[in-house]
C-alpha cells in the first residue's frame, strides 16, 4: 500500500476515535511537552548566558590578561585558592612589553575597575558605582557608543583629563530629569565632568550593567581603581579567532619571561576568554539537558506502552478487517506497515501536540519568571522524530501479530 | 454416456468426464491452457486439540475456464476447506493444486497473497465489506494491494460498481445499503482486478429469497460474459443455478454432474 495512502487511512482511523486516540497519545504528548519545554528553557538560558552575560563582560575574539580569573563560576578548592592568592599582580610596567609584542592589527586596552562611592549635587545620597579607568581602544573593543554626548578625545586620554562617560543607571540616579552632559559627578572628592551617556547595556539575573562610570586611564580616578601601579586587566582583541589564539600564545610567552617562569612551572597569570567564562555554564547546561532528556524519556516509555496496548486492542478489534484485507491480496508487509504507520502516526500526532504545548509551557515560564525561553528548531525535529520512533517501536509487536494472523481464522472473527 | 453429449447451450464449456480424468491423473504435469483449476489428490488435515480432523481426503477436481460450478455438500463435508484451498487462503497437506497453469500448493504466504489479489475474487456470505469505508473504497481495495495508481483505481472501481448497477451508490457506506446491494458491492470488489475465478461462499446465505434470485441473476450474467464462477453452497436450489454441480461428502468428491441431471435427480424445476 502506498505510504501516503497508509497515513491517510491512519489519520482517518485516529479521527474516528478522537477521545480514545487522545488518551492513547497523552503519554507521548506529555513526554514531548517536557522535552520541548526543558530544551527551550535551557536553550534560552544558554543564549542569555552567551549574549547577555558573557557577551557583556567579554568582547568578541578578545581575551584578557589578568592575574586571576575574573569569572569564577566553578568549584574552588582550597589548593586552587592558595595558588591564586600567591600570584603576582599585573603591573603598569607589564603593559608596554606586552603591547610591543602584539601584531599590528590588534586592539588593546588597559582596564581597571572598582566599586567606588559617587555623589552629585542634584541628589543628596551618595551611591556606589562601578568605576572604570581605560586606555584609548576600550570603547572600540567593547563596541560601546554614547547615546548622548561623546567619547573621550585623544587629548583627554593623553592628558588624563577629569572627564567621564556614564551608564544609564548612573545618569538616571545622579541627574534626575537633567541632561548629565556637562555636569559634574564627584568621586573621592574629585569632580569629573560628564561628557557622554552610554547606550543601555541591559542586565543579567537582575544585575544591571548600567551602573558604571568610565574615566581615562591617566586620570586621577586611576589612583583609586588601580592602586600602587597595579592594573586589573589588559584587554586584547584580534581580528579573527585564529589570530586570537596565536596572540594569546605571544602574550603568554612575554608574561612567562617577565615572571621568570621555568618551563616546568605553570602560568601564574590568567588569559581569560569568553570560552573560559562559558565553560562552567556549559557544564551546568549538560546536567540540565540530561535531566531534560531523562525525565521525558520516562513519559515516552509509558506512552509507548500505552500505544502498544491500544494497538494490540486495535488488532484484536479489527481481526476481521485484517482477514478481509488478506483475502483481497494484502501481504504480511502490507498489514504490518498499515499498523506500523497507524501507531507511528498516532504517536507523531501526540508528539506534534506535545511540541505545541511544550512551547506554550516554555513561553508561560518565560512570561512568569526571569528565565527566557528560546525556540530551538532541532528540538521540534527531535521531538517529532522521537514521536515517530516511539510509535514505530510500540507498533512493531502488535503489527507483526496482525500480519501473522491466519486469513481464514481472521475472516471468521466477529 | 449422456454426460459426453452437450444438451444445453449453457453447459457448453463443460469438458467430458474422460478429459477431466486425464488431466487429474497426470500427476506433476502442468495442465493445459484452458484448465483454470486442477486439484490432484488434495488432502487437508487439522489438529483439533489432539484429534486429527481429515477435512479433505484426496479431492480431484478439474475446472475449465468459463465454467459455472457449484460445490455442494452437507456441513462437515469439507466444502469450506476446499473453498479455502481453491481460494489460496489455505494450503493442502498433500496433493497438487494448479491454478491457471501454476502450482500454488507449495507457495509462501506472501506469494499466495499475490495470487489471491490477481487470480481470485471472493464473495462471502457475510459480505465482508469494511464498514467505515465507502462502496467505492471497498471496491478499490484489491487494486490498492495490486499497486494500481489512485486515478486508475477509482476509475476501475467505478466501472465495476456500474457493472453491478450500483453506479449511483459509490459514496454510500455498507450500513447505508441493503443486503443485496452490499453483496453486489462485494461482487464488484471481487471483479475489479479481473480475476481468473470468482469464488463465492454461500453468497445468498444472508439474503431473502427475492434478493437471492437477484444475486443469482448477477452471477448468471457474469457467467454468460465468460467469467469463471465457483460457488460453494449447501442449498440445492441455489446450486441448481450453476451449470455443473460437484457434491462433496466426507472430504471426497461424491458426485460431479451437469445441472440437467442434478435437477432431474432432485426433482427441482429446470
Short description:
Chain A folds into two domains: 3-52 and 279-412, no CATH class; 62-273, no CATH class. Chain A is built from 14 helices and 14 strands. Chain A has helices at residues 3-16, 18-57, 78-86, 92-101, 138-142, 154-159, 168-174, 222-225, 241-258, 274-317, 319-327, 332-368, 377-403, 407-412, and strands spanning 62-66, 90-91, 107-120, 123-134, 146-149, 163-166, 184-187, 190-198, 203-204, 207-208, 212-216, 230-231, 233-237, 270-273.
What is the topological layout?
The complex is a heterodimer of chains A (414) and B (270).
Chain A: H1 3-16, H2 18-57, E1 62-66, H3 78-86, E2 90-91, H4 92-101, E3 107-120, E4 123-134, H5 138-142, E5 146-149, H6 154-159, E6 163-166, H7 168-174, E7 184-187, E8 190-198, E9 203-204, E10 207-208, E11 212-216, H8 222-225, E12 230-231, E13 233-237, H9 241-258, E14 270-273, H10 274-317, H11 319-327, H12 332-368, H13 377-403, H14 407-412
Helix pairs in contact in A: 1-12, 2-10, 2-12, 2-13, 4-9, 10-12, 10-13, 12-13
Chain B: H1 17-25, E1 35-48, E2 51-64, E3 68-72, H2 79-86, E4 94-99, E5 102-103, H3 109-119, E6 120-123, H4 135-146, H5 150-163, H6 179-191, E7 197-201, H7 209-224, E8 228-232, H8 236-239, E9 244-249, E10 252-258, H9 259-266
Parallel strand pairs in B: 3-8, 3-9, 6-7, 7-8
Antiparallel strand pairs in B: 1-2, 1-4, 4-5, 9-10
Helix pairs in contact in B: 4-5, 4-6, 5-6, 6-7
Amino acid at each position: 500500500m502506498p505510504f501516503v495512502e497508509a497515513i491517510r487511512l491512519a489519520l482517518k482511523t485516529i479521527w474516528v476515535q478522537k477521545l480514545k486516540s487522545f488518551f492513547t497519545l497523552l503519554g507521548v504528548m506529555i513526554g514531548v511537552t517536557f522535552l520541548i519545554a526543558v530544551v527551550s528553557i535551557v536553550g534560552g538560558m544558554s543564549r542569555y548566558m552567551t549574549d547577555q552575560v558573557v557577551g557583556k563582560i567579554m568582547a568578541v575574539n578578545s581575551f584578557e590578561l589578568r592575574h586571576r580569573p575574573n569569572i569564577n563560576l566553578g568549584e574552588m578548592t582550597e589548593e586552587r585558592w592558595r595558588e591564586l592568592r600567591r600570584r603576582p599582580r599585573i603591573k603598569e610596567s607589564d603593559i608596554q612589553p606586552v603591547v610591543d609584542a602584539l601584531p599590528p592589527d590588534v586592539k588593546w586596552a588597559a582596564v581597571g575597575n572598582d566599586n567606588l562611592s559617587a555623589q552629585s549635587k542634584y541628589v543628596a545620597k551618595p551611591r556606589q558605582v562601578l568605576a572604570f579607568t581605560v586606555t584609548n581602544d576600550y570603547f572600540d573593543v567593547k563596541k560601546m557608543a554614547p547615546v548622548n554626548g561623546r567619547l573621550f578625545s585623544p587629548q583627554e586620554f593623553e592628558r588624563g583629563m577629569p572627564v567621564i562617560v556614564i551608564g544609564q543607571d548612573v545618569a538616571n540616579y545622579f541627574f534626575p530629569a537633567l541632561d548629565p552632559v556637562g555636569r559634574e559627578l564627584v568621586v573621592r572628592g574629585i569632580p569629573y565632568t560628564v561628557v557622554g551617556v552610554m547606550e543601555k547595556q541591559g542586565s543579567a539575573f537582575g544585575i544591571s550593567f548600567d551602573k558604571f562610570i568610565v574615566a581615562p586611564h591617566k586620570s586621577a580616578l586611576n589612583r583609586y581603581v588601580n592602586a600602587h601601579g597595579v592594573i586589573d586587566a589588559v584587554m586584547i582583541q584580534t581580528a579573527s579567532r585564529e589570530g586570537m589564539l596565536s596572540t594569546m600564545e605571544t602574550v603568554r610567552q612575554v608574561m612567562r619571561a617577565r615572571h621568570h617562569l621555568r618551563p616546568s612551572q605553570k602560568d601564574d597569570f590568567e588569559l581569560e576568554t569568553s570560552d573560559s567564562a562559558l565553560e562552567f555554564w556549559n557544564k551546568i547546561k549538560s546536567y540540565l539537558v540530561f535531566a531534560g532528556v531523562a525525565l521525558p524519556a520516562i513519559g515516552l516509555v509509558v506512552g509507548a506502552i500505552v500505544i502498544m496496548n491500544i494497538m494490540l486492542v486495535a488488532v484484536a478489534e479489527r481481526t476481521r478487517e485484517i482477514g478481509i484485507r488478506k483475502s483481497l491480496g494484502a501481504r504480511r508487509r502490507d498489514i504490518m506497515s498499515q499498523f506500523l504507520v497507524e501507531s507511528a502516526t498516532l504517536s507523531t500526532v501526540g508528539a506534534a501536540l506535545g511540541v505545541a504545548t511544550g512551547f506554550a509551557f516554555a513561553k508561560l515560564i518565560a512570561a512568569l519568571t526571569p528565565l527566557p525561553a528560546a525556540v530551538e528548531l532541532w528540538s521540534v525535529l527531535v521531538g517529532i522524530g522521537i514521536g515517530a520512533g516511539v510509535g514505530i517501536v510500540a507498533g512493531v509487536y502488535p503489527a507483526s501479530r496482525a500480519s501473522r494472523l491466519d486469513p481464514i481464522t481472521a475472516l471468521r472473527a466477529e | 454416456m449422456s454426460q459426453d453429449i452437450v444438451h444445453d447451450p449453457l453447459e457448453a464449456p463443460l469438458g467430458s468426464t474422460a478429459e477431466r480424468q486425464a488431466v487429474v491423473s497426470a500427476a506433476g504435469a502442468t495442465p493445459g491452457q484452458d484448465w483454470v483449476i486442477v486439484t490432484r489428490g488434495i488432502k487437508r488435515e487439522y489438529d483439533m486439540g489432539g484429534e486429527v480432523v481429515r477435512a479433505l481426503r484426496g479431492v480431484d477436481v478439474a475446472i475449465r475456464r468459463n465454467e459455472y460450478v457449484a460445490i455442494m455438500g452437507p456441513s462437515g463435508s469439507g466444502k469450506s476447506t476446499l473453498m479455502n484451498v481453491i481460494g489460496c487462503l489455505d494450503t493442502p497437506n498433500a496433493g497438487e493444486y494448479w491454478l491457471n497453469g501454476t502450482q500454488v500448493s507449495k507457495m509462501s504466504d506472501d506469494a499466495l497473497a499475490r495470487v489471491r489479489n490477481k487470480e481470485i475474487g471472493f464473495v462471502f456470505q457475510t459480505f465482508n465489506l469494511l464498514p467505515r469505508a465507502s462502496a467505492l473504497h471497498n471496491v478499490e481495495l484489491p487494486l490498492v494491494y495490486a499497486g494500481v495508481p489512485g486515478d486508475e483505481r477509482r476509475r476501475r472501481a467505478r466501472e465495476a460498481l456500474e457493472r453491478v448497477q450500483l453506479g449511483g451508490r459509490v459514496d454510500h457506506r455498507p450500513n447505508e445499503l441493503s443486503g443485496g446491494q452490499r453483496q453486489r458491492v462485494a461482487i464488484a470488489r471481487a471483479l475489479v482486478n479481473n480475476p481468473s475465478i470468482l469464488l463465492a461462499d454461500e453468497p445468498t446465505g444472508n439474503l431473502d429469497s427475492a434478493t437471492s434470485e437477484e444475486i443469482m441473476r448477477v452471477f448468471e450474467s457474469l457467467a454468460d460474459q465468460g467469467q469463471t464462477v465457483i460457488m460453494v453452497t449447501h442449498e440445492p436450489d441455489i446450486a441448481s443455478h450453476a451449470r455443473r454441480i460437484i457434491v462433496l461428502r466426507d472430504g471426497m468428491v461424491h458426485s460431479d454432474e451437469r445441472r440437467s441431471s442434478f435437477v432431474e435427480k432432485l426433482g427441482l424445476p429446470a
